[in-house]
Amino acid sequence: MTAQKIRAKELYICKKCGNVMITRKIANNNSEEKKFETVLQCIVCRYWIPLE
């Protein structure tokens, strides 16, 4: 198994498990229009936090 290469300016560490977090876009289904929200998500436990 090869290691995943992460190209980021800053490395974010998950507060729950201590692994690397990456930026992702998730759909916000609260409105009629499709809006995407940028979040940081852990690659192992899938814990996520919103980015402003």
Please outline the major beta sheet: 4 strands, antiparallel
Percent helix range: under 10%
Number of strands: 4
The assigned structural class equals mainly beta
Spell out the helices and strands N to C.
Answer: EEEE
Strand line-up across the major sheet: 1-2-3-4
Description:
The protein is mostly beta strands and 52 residues long. The chain has strands at 12-13, 20-28, 35-42, 48-50. The chain starts with 11 loop residues before the first strand and ends with a strand.
Concise description?
The chain is mainly β.
Keywords, separated by commas or semicolons:
about 50 residues; mainly beta; 4 strands; elongated
Architecture blueprint of SSEs:
Layout: E1 12-13, E2 20-28, E3 35-42, E4 48-50
Antiparallel strand pairs: 1-2, 2-3, 3-4
